[in-house]
């Protein structure tokens, strides 16, 4: 599998660490309550199909990426810097 | 026998070799199989289960029978296919899975017991008495099973891994692959052309087929020469593409020729990862056998293989050959044999409408129903409309049609489609993104079809990649239609083999169906059909056709099992190349490494680093003596220890204070410039991630320290928090672990030692406890931190790493003059336990700030990572095991890490478990053992007598629960 | 039909004509007392124990493909009870005891081979952690032996003791651990359940879960609607999708785990051996293939296949640990879908919907759990209270933080366990 790092170009996944669904970007407020935090940290849609997940280019530029990917076909359709995704949402 | 015709062998280069100790000879260009055939060796192996004698069956990597061990000593390699093993001078080959010899194999007895050894028999017996499974049944089965044997010696050969990148990977260099590579190469694409054979040409080397009016192999050679001349084309022969993976990545195994591999330092094999934009699969097709009674006799072989032996290697496995098939290939085989001067005793075509002009005894609409001859084929029985004919023959060539080699197209979960016209599965386009098929592996079986298919695929790739195709003429070649009348298994009594390697017969598949293992996957797993080294390449389609028949379903409905990588088996040494010995992980060395080694310190792995365990001095016989002395040195004089392995992260920017406040449970924005503070970091799930001191070097400048073990994890975590949670923060950070050599200088005389090397001496006022700042170390700009992991008056002094070696030598030297010296990890550990300082033995991923007594360090004034989840009810409270100190009070004075804790009178069983010990050591300072551990509601139980039980070390001790700080609880020594 | 050596003999002498189907292929009936979704090892053993221990037989197991086609047929066949934390300790201990009599219980040879499991340690700290775990095993009543380097060398002399990157300090040996013939476990339970009246319905995909007023009433399937009083979900990697049919969002992320087998070889590895400085575990099957695996590929996946980086990493671990197998050839690689939970431990619990039960989160440790998982899940479904050996596998533990069982100590990131 290869990931199109916006900074480094197409790279083998062995350069990356995987963290999980990109919902990890949406950290709840400290006082959001037990359910919100449980949903954030533990519960997952776990889709069989298109997903957005977080990869860290640790053996490359050090960027965290939001990767658009399919969990069934392993097709990778895009990657965006997490800071841009986060910045856009803010 | 060797035929009197040229072939692709070099008769000027005779080669001698041995098989099972007997000497034979062949020629350069031979495989072991062709050389054995030339030498009239018929039996080359024994089958897996019934130990039946077996002969060479194919001429390729799919070979099921001719598996041999080649080489001697540590170089011996089991299960090699004689059919793809290049002959070389002095080659030593042995047959496998027989005892005492290939000719007289004791376990051939199994063949007599075949009625009791059918599919899955072992699931129904060997159950009584239960204990005998491990003691009797299983050892016997294990010894009888298996094929070849490993040498028992560690691998002593060199293997490699490599990467390659290209625009187009062409897999297979037969007519289709050559055409594709030619067109793509001429158009300027970066092309890799890979083929598992030693030469390009594919079937053109094995057939008497003409291309453009010339022998096919000559045409292939010309095209190959042109490709070799192109700078943008790389030809990789002896290279099998083993798997298709995501993103256009392919695995490939390259075997070096025996001559090259024999050179010093040269690898035997190299595993390639090829990243390509597009691929064309032109892997050809595999011929399939027909199941009939005793079709596994030595001398029965595939027709296409026989043609390869006759045409390419100029050998014939028989003097009187018969041919049996259901396509025109049977006729082509007979014709080739006749042309080579080999006697053809009969040609049997299962198709009733077939005819022939060949001068041979011909049967149309007939079938071979039995093969006779225990040690090798002597005769066959042919069922005709008028009865059974028996024909004397020592070799039967059979062909049941061809299966396209579509394996790679299915490596990414693609499933093939059934083609009734071809009576074979064909690949589905698009099954592997970026991969096209061409030639026989697409079901185009004529030479013209292959050439045209290769060219068309290349043009499609060029168009796709926006490249213009240059004019490439399509050579002229035969375009015979493929006419097949499916024939899977000839009906009749006896055993008819499907999977030759695993000894799976038609009966076994039918039994599986009877017992309702009727899914193709159940049938496979119940009978072991297709699970042997050839992975069913010779047998799967036949077997599922038999299953379809037995279950009354069609073949498409029955479906195939899953094609999995690798296409051919790959040595572990190739996939794991480079990792043997120390190569498995990088080695990191500190600047003090050389001196430590010079001083005789055992260097111990700490993550990827190596750190000194202790520094033995003359007269010290055990590590404990050295350790106790080093502890004493630090407590009474001064010790020096390299702490460079701790993670050092330089954090800068206007938002650095706020960023650290978010990372750590406690406040760093309030830390004064020139001061350091201990910090506790949680994971978002509320458990402790790491700890360490962070120094504020400027208003917007901090230097963080992490533990050695967690340095990488913390760095990644910080990047996550910054980029994913707080990108608005104006902060930058970078690891400077390798840039600075840092040494702890600890003990009452530490300041004396330091002031001897600092250009401007420090004192208690200029450098109080937890102070930090820039210093000049004998003219070198360095940093000084007054922090202590030993509880003593201590500093850590840092200089750029290039000065580390000399500074360490100097410090150790000067410390010696003050009655101190270097100390290692063991002493460091004792010193910190005496002070109740935690390491990852305590913060092992399951402990909370509450557990270690630091819940007050979670600031109420701000948010931090992990704060919300740390507030979950389960993460604090009296049910939690809390950090305590333990000292022995009974007759047994030793405490051990890993022991569990129980109430004084309680039995040492799970339901009474109260906790466990994480760190234990003898304290030379206190004169007794001490331990840190976690005890249920431990903080409320100081003073209580409890029981420590270490079952596995057989130590049990009474101990008292105490505060985890054993030594100088007020901390006066560090501050003073 | 009872299986025995005598039966094999008499059948062999009479042309093997008497063998019968090991299980029926019934069409689903319109209504059952209990429907188990998932015909893997766990689902089949659940059905078996519902019938065997709770006297229930109006049960269907619904399998969307063929039984045993998921992880029970894709693992590295290791059976062990060497956990360190309460909750896991008692459960896997219970499971190992069930394994020990399984052939006789099922009258089907699942080839449980108690050849011993050896975990290697490579530092003082790791050895102390092993000691803690070993003591927990003994506290539980299971067997554990802490070996020093010499002891390891006596047991498995073929390891690279001299050149390995991370020296071998010792090991945790668990003699009662071992391997079993994975497919046979599914088949044995299927045959046993079928013989007790359970309908095993293959090629029957559940497409919906019917809920009325907070109570489950049945399921929709590719073969029609089926009413049921109780429904158990036991679908491993597919837990997220099936639970979503009941409106639930689970603490589970599905990941790919690869496994490997070499060509057949004469006996070389007699135990199960695991490497402590890289995820690598290996044993040799009775047929002679070296069966081994490593860590997850680390990315969420339903593909049942993986990629080269982890394959290479596993082989690299093999080469540093036991270069004696370097010339063994990898014959086949495959993958399974692992239902990774946030603490690496499973969930066997009721749900907020009456009559709907959940069994998931086995991560990649599900095979050894097959007997106890079914046994405890059957108990929960039949009696509506947890089996004593599985009281801690609660669904709400992540929200409350009570009773987390993070054996690896890696925290709430699904792919790190």
UniProtKB/TrEMBL annotation, chain A:
It comes from the Bacteria. GO terms for biological process: tetrahydrofolate metabolic process. GO terms for molecular function: sarcosine oxidase activity. InterPro entries: SoxD, SoxD_sf. It holds the Pfam family SoxD. This is Sarcosine oxidase subunit delta. It comes from Lutimaribacter pacificus.
UniProtKB/TrEMBL annotation, chain B:
Residues 493-578 form the SoxA A3 domain. Keywords: Oxidoreductase. Residues 593-862 form the GCVT N-terminal domain. One of its GO terms (molecular function) is sarcosine oxidase activity. Pfam families: FAD_oxidored, Fer2_4, GCV_T, GCV_T_C, SO_alpha_A3. Gene3D superfamilies: 2Fe-2S iron-sulphur cluster binding domain, sarcosine oxidase, alpha subunit, N-terminal domain (3.10.20.440), BFD-like [2Fe-2S]-binding domain (1.10.10.1100), FAD/NAD(P)-binding domain (3.50.50.60), Probable tRNA modification gtpase trme, domain 1 (3.30.1360.120). PANTHER family: AMINOMETHYLTRANSFERASE (PTHR43757), AMINOMETHYLTRANSFERASE, MITOCHONDRIAL (PTHR43757:SF2). This is Sarcosine oxidase subunit alpha. It comes from Lutimaribacter pacificus.
From TrEMBL, chain C:
The keyword Lyase does not apply. One of its GO terms (molecular function) is sarcosine oxidase activity. Its EC number is 1.5.3.24. InterPro entries: FAD-dep_OxRdtase, FAD/NAD-bd_sf, Rhodanese-like_dom, SoxB. Gene3D superfamilies: D-Amino Acid Oxidase, subunit A, domain 2, FAD/NAD(P)-binding domain. Residues 34-78 form the Rhodanese domain. Its main location: cytoplasm. It catalyses: sarcosine + (6S)-5,6,7,8-tetrahydrofolate + O2 = (6R)-5,10-methylene-5,6,7,8-tetrahydrofolate + glycine + H2O2; sarcosine + O2 + H2O = formaldehyde + glycine + H2O2. Keywords: Cytoplasm, FAD, Flavoprotein, FMN, Nucleotide-binding, Oxidoreductase. It is found in: Cytoplasm. One of its GO terms (biological process) is tetrahydrofolate metabolic process. SUPFAM superfamilies: FAD-linked reductases, C-terminal domain, FAD/NAD(P)-binding domain. Belongs to the SoxB family. This is Sarcosine oxidase subunit beta. It comes from Lutimaribacter pacificus.
């Amino acid at each position: 599998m290869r990931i199109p790092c916006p900074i480094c170009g197409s790279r083998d996944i062995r350069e990356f660490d995987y963290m999980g669904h990109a919902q990890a970007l949406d950290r709840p407020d400290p006082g959001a309550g037990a359910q919100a935090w449980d949903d954030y940290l533990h519960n997952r849609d776990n889709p069989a199909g298109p997903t957005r997940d977080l990869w860290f280019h640790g053996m490359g530029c050090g960027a965290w990426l939001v990767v658009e990917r399919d969990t069934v076909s392993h097709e990778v359709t895009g990657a965006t810097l997490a800071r841009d995704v986060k910045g856009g949402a803010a | 026998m060797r035929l009197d015709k040229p072939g692709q062998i070099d008769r000027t280069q005779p080669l001698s070799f041995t098989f099972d100790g007997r000497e034979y000879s062949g020629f350069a260009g031979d495989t072991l199989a062709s050389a054995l055939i030339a030498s009239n060796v018929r039996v080359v192996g024994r089958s897996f289960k019934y130990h039946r004698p077996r002969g060479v069956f194919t001429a390729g990597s799919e070979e099921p029978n001719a598996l041999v061990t080649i080489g001697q000593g540590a170089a011996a390699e089991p299960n090699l296919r004689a059919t793809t093993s290049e002959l070389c001078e002095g080659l030593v080959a042995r047959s496998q899975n027989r005892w005492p010899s290939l000719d007289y194999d004791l376990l051939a007895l199994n063949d007599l017991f075949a009625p009791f050894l059918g599919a899955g028999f072992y699931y129904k017996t060997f159950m009584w008495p239960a204990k005998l499974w491990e003691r009797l049944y299983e050892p016997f089965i294990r010894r009888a099973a298996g094929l070849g044997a490993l040498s028992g010696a560690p691998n002593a050969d060199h293997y490699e891994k490599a990467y390659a990148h290209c625009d187009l990977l062409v897999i297979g260099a037969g007519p289709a692959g050559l055409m594709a590579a030619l067109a793509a190469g001429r158009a300027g694409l970066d092309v890799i052309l890979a083929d598992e054979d030693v030469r390009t040409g594919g079937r053109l080397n094995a057939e008497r087929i003409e291309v453009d009016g010339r022998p096919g192999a000559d045409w292939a050679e010309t095209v190959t020469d042109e490709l070799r001349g192109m700078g943008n084309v790389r030809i990789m022969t002896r290279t099998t593409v083993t798997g298709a993976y995501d993103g256009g990545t392919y695995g490939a195994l390259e075997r070096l020729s025996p001559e090259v591999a024999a050179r010093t330092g040269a690898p035997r094999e190299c595993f390639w990862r090829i990243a390509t934009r597009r691929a064309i699969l032109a892997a050809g097709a595999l011929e399939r056998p027909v199941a009939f009674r005793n079709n596994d006799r030595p001398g029965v072989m595939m027709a296409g293989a026989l043609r390869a032996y006759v045409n390419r290697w100029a050998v014939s496995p028989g003097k009187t050959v018969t041919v049996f098939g259901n396509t025109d290939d049977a006729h082509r085989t007979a014709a080739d044999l006749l042309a080579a001067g080999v006697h053809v005793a009969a040609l049997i075509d299962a198709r009733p409408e077939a005819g022939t002009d060949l001068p041979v005894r011909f049967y149309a609409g007939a079938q071979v129903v039995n093969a006779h001859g225990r040690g090798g084929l002597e005769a066959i029985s042919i069922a005709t409309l008028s009865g059974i004919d028996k024909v004397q023959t020592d070799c039967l060539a059979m062909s049941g049609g061809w299966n396209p080699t579509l394996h790679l197209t299915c490596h990414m979960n693609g499933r093939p489609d059934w083609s009734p016209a071809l009576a074979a599965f064909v690949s589905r386009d698009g099954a592997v993104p970026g991969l096209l098929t061409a030639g026989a592996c697409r079901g185009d079986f004529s030479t013209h079809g292959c050439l045209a298919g290769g060219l068309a695929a290349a043009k499609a790739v060029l168009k796709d990649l926006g490249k213009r195709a240059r004019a490439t003429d399509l050579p002229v070649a035969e375009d015979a239609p493929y006419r097949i009348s499916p024939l899977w298994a000839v009906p009749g009594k006896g055993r008819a083999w499907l999977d030759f390697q695993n000894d799976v017969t038609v009966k076994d598949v039918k039994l599986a169906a009877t017992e309702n293992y009727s899914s193709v996957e159940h049938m496979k797993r119940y009978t072991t059909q297709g699970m042997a080294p050839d992975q069913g390449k010779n047998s799967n389609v036949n077997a599922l056709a038999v299953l379809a028949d037995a279950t009354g379903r069609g073949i498409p409905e029955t479906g195939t099992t899953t094609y999995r990588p690798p296409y051919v088996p790959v040595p572990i040494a190739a996939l794991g190349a480079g990792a043997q010995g120390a190569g498995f992980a990088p080695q990191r060395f500190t600047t003090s490494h050389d001196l430590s080694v010079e001083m005789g310190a055992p260097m111990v792995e700490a993550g990827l680093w190596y750190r000194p365990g202790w520094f033995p001095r003359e007269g010290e016989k055990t590590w404990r003596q050295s350790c106790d002395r080093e502890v004493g040195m630090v407590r009474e004089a001064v010790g020096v220890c390299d702490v460079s392995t701790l993670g050092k992260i330089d954090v800068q920017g206007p938002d650095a204070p706020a960023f650290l406040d978010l990372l750590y449970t406690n406040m760093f924005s309030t830390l004064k410039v020139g001061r350091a503070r201990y910090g506790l970091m949680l994971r978002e799930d509320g458990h402790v991630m790491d700890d360490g001191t962070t120094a504020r070097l400027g208003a917007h400048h901090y230097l963080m320290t992490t533990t050695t073990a967690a340095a990488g994890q913390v760095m990644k975590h910080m990047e996550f928090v910054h980029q994913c949670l707080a990108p608005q923060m104006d902060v930058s950070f970078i690891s400077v672990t390798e840039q600075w050599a840092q040494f702890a200088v600890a003990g009452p005389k530490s300041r004396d030692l330091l002031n001897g090397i600092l250009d401007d001496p420090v004192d208690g006022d200029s450098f109080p406890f937890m102070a930090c700042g820039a210093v000049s170390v004998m003219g070198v700009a360095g940093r000084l931190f007054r922090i202590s992991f030993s509880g003593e008056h201590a500093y850590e002094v840092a200089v750029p790493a290039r000065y580390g070696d000399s500074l360490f030598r100097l410090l150790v030297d000067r410390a010696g003059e003050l009655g101190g010296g270097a100390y290692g990890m063991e002493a460091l550990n004792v010193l910190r336990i005496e002070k109740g300082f935690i390491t990852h033995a305590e913060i092992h991923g399951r402990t909370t700030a509450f557990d270690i007594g630091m819940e007050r360090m979670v600031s109420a004034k701000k948010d931090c990572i992990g704060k919300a989840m740390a507030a979950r009810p389960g993460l604090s409270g009296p049910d939690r095991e809390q950090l305590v100190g333990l000292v022995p009070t009974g007759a047994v004075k030793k405490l051990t890490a890993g022991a569990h804790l129980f109430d004084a009178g309680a039995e040492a069983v799970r339901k009474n478990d109260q906790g466990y010990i994480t760190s234990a050591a003898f304290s030379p300072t206190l004169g007794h053992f001490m331990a840190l551990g976690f005890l249920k509601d431990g903080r409320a139980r100081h003073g209580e007598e409890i029981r420590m039980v270490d079952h596995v070390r057989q130590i049990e001790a009474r101990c008292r629960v105490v505060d985890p700080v054993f030594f100088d609880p007020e901390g006066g020594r560090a501050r003073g | 039909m009872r299986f025995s050596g005598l039966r094999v003999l008499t059948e062999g002498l009479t042309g093997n004509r008497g063998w019968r189907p090991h299980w029926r292929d019934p069409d689903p009936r319109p209504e059952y007392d209990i429907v188990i979704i998932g015909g893997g090892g766990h689902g089949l053993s659940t059905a078996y124990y519902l019938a065997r221990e709770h006297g229930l037989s109006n049960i269907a197991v619904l399998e969307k493909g063929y039984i045993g086609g998921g992880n029970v047929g894709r693992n590295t066949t290791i059976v062990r009870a060497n956990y360190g934390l309460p909750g896991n300790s008692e459960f896997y201990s219970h499971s190992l005891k069930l394994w020990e009599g399984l052939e006789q219980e099922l009258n089907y040879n699942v080839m449980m081979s108690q050849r011993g499991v050896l975990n290697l340690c490579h530092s003082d700290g790791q050895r102390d952690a092993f000691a803690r775990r070993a003591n927990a095993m003994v506290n539980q009543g299971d067997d554990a032996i802490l070996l020093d380097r010499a002891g390891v060398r006596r047991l498995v002399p073929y390891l690279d003791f001299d050149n390995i990157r991370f020296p071998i300090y010792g090991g945790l040996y668990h003699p009662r651990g071992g391997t079993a013939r994975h497919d046979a476990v599914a088949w044995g339970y299927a045959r046993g359940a079928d013989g007790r009246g359970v309908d095993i319905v293959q090629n029957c995909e559940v497409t919906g879960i019917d809920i009325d007023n907070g109570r489950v009433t049945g399921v929709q399937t590719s073969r029609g609607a089926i009413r049921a009083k109780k429904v158990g979900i036991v679908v491993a990697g597919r837990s997220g999708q099936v639970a979503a049919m009941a409106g639930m969002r689970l603490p589970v992320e599905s990941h790919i785990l690869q496994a490997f087998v070499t060509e057949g070889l004469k006996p070389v590895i007699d135990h199960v051996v695991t490497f402590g400085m890289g995820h690598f575990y290996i044993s040799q099957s009775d047929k002679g293939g070296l069966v081994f695996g490593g860590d997850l590929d680390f990315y969420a996946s339903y593909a049942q296949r993986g990629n080269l980086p982890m394959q290479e990493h596993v082989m690299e671990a093999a080469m540093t640990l036991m270069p004696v197998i370097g010339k063994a050839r990898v014959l086949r690689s495959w993958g399974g879908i692992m239902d990774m939970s946030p603490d690496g431990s499973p969930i066997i619990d009721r749900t907020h919907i009456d009559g709907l039960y959940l069994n998931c989160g086995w991560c990649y440790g599900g095979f050894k759990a097959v007997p106890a998982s079914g046994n405890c899940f059957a108990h929960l479904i039949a009696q509506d209270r947890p089996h004593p050996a599985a009281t801690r596998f609660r669904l709400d533990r992540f929200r409350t933080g009570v009773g987390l069982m993070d054996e690896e100590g890696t925290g709430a990131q699904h792919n790190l366990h």
